[in-house]
Amino acid sequence: xxxxxxxxxxxxxxxxxxxxxxxxxxxxxxxxxxxxxxxxxxxxxxxxxxxxxxxxxxxxxxxxxxxxxxxxxxxxxxxxxxxxxxxxxxxxxxxxxxxxxxxxxxxxxxxxxxxxxxxxxxxxxxxxxxxxxxxxxxxxxxxxxxxxxxxxxxxxxxxxxxxxxxxxxxxxxxxxxxxxxxxxxxxxxxxxxxxxxxxxxxxxxxxxxxxxxxxxxxxxxxxxxxxxxxxxxxxxxxxxxxxxxxxxxxxxxxxxxxxxxxxxxxxxxxxxxxxxxxxxxxxxxxxxxxxxxxxxxxxxxxxxxxxxxxxxxxxxxxxxxxxxxxxxxxxxxxxxxxxxxxxxxxxxxxxxxxxxxxxxxxxxxxxxxxxxxxxxxxxxxxxxxxxxxxxxxxxxxxx
Length: 399
Ligand SMILES: *Cc1c(COP(=O)(O)O)cnc(C)c1O
Hints:
Distance between the termini: 66 Å
Shape: globular
Bound molecules: pyridoxal-5'-phosphate
CATH class of the largest domain: Alpha Beta
Strand content: 5-15%
C-alpha cells in the first residue's frame, strides 16, 4: 500500500525533529548554546554547509527546528525560519530581500510597528515605501514602481478586520516581478493558508495565537526551502534574531491545539458579533463573519472559521468626547475579561485602540483609519459566550 501524505491535523501534533535516543513522547526542550562535534572533519563540513548538523545556538537548535517544521507543515510551505519576535521576522525578511533603492508597497492598515519599521527605520537605509488603502486593489497597482520588490499585506487587519484579496495581490506582485508577503497573525494557518492562494512568504507573530496562551514572544517566516536557506538564514546567522529554545518549545506545543482553539474562539466571536450588532448601545460592529462586513463574501471564500477571533465595535454617542467617555465606561465596567492591548490569548482581551495602539496618531489620521473614540477591540478567548456578553453588558446597558 502506498503511503498517504499525513493530514494537517496529524502534522499539527506530529511534525517535529527526530526523537532522541531516549524515546521521549513529548518533544524535548534542548537548552544548549553549543554542540559537540563528532570529528574535526565533520565540524568543517557542517560549517561549510555540506552536512546537516547543529554547530552553534544562534544558527539552530533541535527544539527550534521542531517548531519550524511544524509551522511549515501547517502553512503548506517547504520551509520555515523562526525569530525572537514577529517584528524581528519582518526585519529579517527586509534585510534578506531588500537593499537601498528598493521599494515596498504595504497596506496603510498594517500593524503599527510594521508601518514604523518599514516607513521610518528602513527608510534610513534607503528603502522606499508606499502605504495604500487595504481593500483598494487599484491603489496597490498604482503604487507599484519599477524598483518595487515586495508587497506586504495583513488580512484581516487590526482593529477594523479589513480583508484584502490575497490571490489578486499575489498576481499583482508577480506581474511586477515582486514578491507577496502576508502577515497571517490574525487568521493563523488554522483558518487561512496564504501560500495556497499565491503568497510567496507568510510572516507570523508566534506571540499571538500560535502560543495562544499569552506566555512567550516568537516570530517566523514560511517560504520556499531555497529562500529560507539562501536569503533568510544568512541574516539570522549574522544578525542573531534567534528564537530561544524555551520559547520555541512553548509555541511548538501551542501549535498542537491551534486548530481547535481557533475554531472555538471564532465561534464565540461570531456569537458575540451578532449579539453586539443587535445591542441598542452599539453603533456598528466590525467582524468579517457578519453579512454587514464590506468584504464578507471575500472573507468566507478566503478563510474558514467564521471570520476569526477578533472583532471591534463602536458605542453609540453624540460626539467624540462622549464616545471616548462611554468606551472607557464599558472597559472600566469589566469584572471578568481583561483590559489588555495584546491578543491571541485564551482569555478574552479588550482594548481602546484610539488611546493605546493608535494613540500617537493625530485625530485626523485616526478618523482616516476609522479608529474613532467609541471603538473597542475584542480579542475573543475561550470563556463561555454568556459570560463575555454579561461582562460587556454591565457597561453597555448603563451608558
Ligand atoms: C503582534 C503583531 C506583530 C508583531 O509581533 P511581535 O511578536 O509582537 O513582535 C505583527 N503583526 C501583527 C498583525 C501583530 O498582531
